[in-house]
Amino acid sequence: MDLTRRLFLTGTTLAVAAPALLRHGLAQSEPIKVGSLVPLSGGGGPYGPEKAQAHKAVVELVNKQGGVLGRQVVLISENSETNPEAAVRAARKMIDADRVCAILGTWASSVTLGIMPLCQEANVVQIFTGSSDTLPNGDKKRLCYNLQPLNKAWCVALADLAAKRGELKIAFAGPKNDFAASMGESFSKALEKVGGKIVGEPLYYNPNQVSYRAEAERLISSGAPALFLAGYVTDLTPVYRELVRGGYQGKVFALSFAVGPQFKQAVGTAANGILHGSPVPPVGKDTYDAYLNLVGLKPNGQVQNSYGCAAYDEMNLLLLGIASAKSTEGPKIAEHIMKVANGPGERVTTFEQGAKLLAEGKTINYDGASSSADFLPNGMLKSRDFALYEIQGDKDVLLTTTTSEAEQ
Amino acid sequence: MDAYLVAILTIAGIYIILALALNLQFGLTGLVNFGVVGFFCLGAYASGIATESFHAPFVGGLCVAMVTGAVAGGLLALLSLRLSGDFLAIVTLGFAETIRLIFNNEDWLTGGPKGLLIMTRPVLADYSRSANAWMVLAVVLTGAVLTLALMLRLAGTPYGRVLRAIREDELVPATLGKNVFVYRLQSFVIGSVLMAAAGSLYAHYVQTITPDNFTTPVAILVWMSVIVGGPGNMLGSVIGALVVVTIYEGSRFLTPWLGFLDAEQVSALRFIVIGTVLILVIRFRPEGLLPEPKHTPVVPATRRPALKG
User: Fold this and answer.
1) Contacts with B7 from chain A: Cβ below 8 Å
2) pTM of the model
3) Which residue ranges run through the membrane (chain B) (predicted)?
């Protein structure tokens, strides 16, 4: 058979068009792909696994109940390594090879910001937990939702506690990263509002040092009657050890996630007297208990998996957003997440309840496990519970719980 | 999937430039430079600051990056090139770490840990997302091909021969009247310029850079590309970089078959695979996948004994 020009043209056209035709035919039954990009190693390593587990648990549950819009959900998991370079490559793979409609679970602000240009360009929704005050800036297409209050909000709660304890002169120290840097600025503002003052310049140190003696000596010699150490468990432990070794006697304020069991084990009884606070899940609330049961934990009246419960909300919000938008296009999903999260509508706490009501044409208002999951117009969280604790006899003793509203 | 291949080829192109630059320094001249990532970082930030703070076009940023790389490479070389192997390795490693820490702390210049957002891209305006990706790939591959051509040319000339002689035994070229220090300095500076250029391409490709993007593991990957490919062989470095990037990125696609491992273990597996490949290559093929061609001197034909009679 001779290869005529007409045959050649028809043949090539068909060959080129085939993938597109197939894709169109398959689109209705194709699974919905969702990316989970959590820190399984690096600075966020202690918090990533609970997020990955929560994402997986929700997806398995939803698939068992019949999926979203009749389609199965496929979870693509990658490790962000708490490093933007690795995260960008992982996000490329998720966006271009897997064609996910959303990337959930990023934790470090540098990672969330690092993958933001890719997600914006490809219209991929991002739902994450992050506190850096610069997070909303890069979200030009309004595709981002944050389940953690920004630093401005937590510092108000901590400064209030400090003032109540009569500590008005506090020195600040933290690792040189985006989170701690904006924490330092916000804390000094919040402290000034309650009549206090930061002693000296805020001290930023480089994480992953072999020794923190010089930093500890500088804090001690500043003569500050109290310190606020905004570090993570990996750097707070050595800094605190050096402070104790150097004979520091003042009060120490810290962030709850840094003074967990790992920290207490490392420093022993020296941990007594540390005051700490952070956003907490609403202990005792039905939604939080439902999350704990889902991942196989028992509600015990204590804070457990404070990032896992946020990850549970990340996945529920996304899937409800898809169910409400009846689409997997990023901008549409993002628009509908706002509707299902803020309402108005009937209160729902799981995907199953929400999807049922949405199918009946009703409106819903998702109430989450980490907070009520209501957002400001820029996608940042409206309010979340804060708890303030004191370590006494190796245990966290709850001092007070407040609900902090974010600034508009 | 095709879009992903474009992305991976772009990353591979950047690694090829880095590997070729290191091959000039280590493979040809025998300079142990562990500070690859320092020059890479310097180039990325120099280019980013030039285009974002001073509104230079992409090509301007690239030139600024190369000049910065040359100046930094020259200064570091003047300070440290008289040091031999191991000491040079430590100095360059320290240099890379110093650059990263400076950029992390000088917020006014680099944005510090918040990172630098780069809007300038080496693309024509108003094209689709996939067309943009192809354009970036074309720019990076052009850079890689130009670098390869330059390196092949350098390695084949008498100049390349002097560099190899310095690597083998610097006393011999010195005896022949070659200024060994100047040759080493030139080799180091050319390598640094290319690494900085790769940094510029990287910065305008990923569009957000933070000091965390430039940690030692990047330098280790470049070193592995050179070792696996075959030190001294320029095509070997290209193959080496492709092999390393393929293993590094390709291992992601094993996840569906590794259901018994969680994501954390799979990501650790990636480094185990790369480490194993390195050990196997060093054990069974220490000269690399493409060994350096042997340069045997032309032996003049032995004179036949004169015929008697």
Assistant:
1) 92-93, 96
2) 0.85
3) 6-24, 31-50, 56-79, 133-155, 188-206, 218-248, 268-284
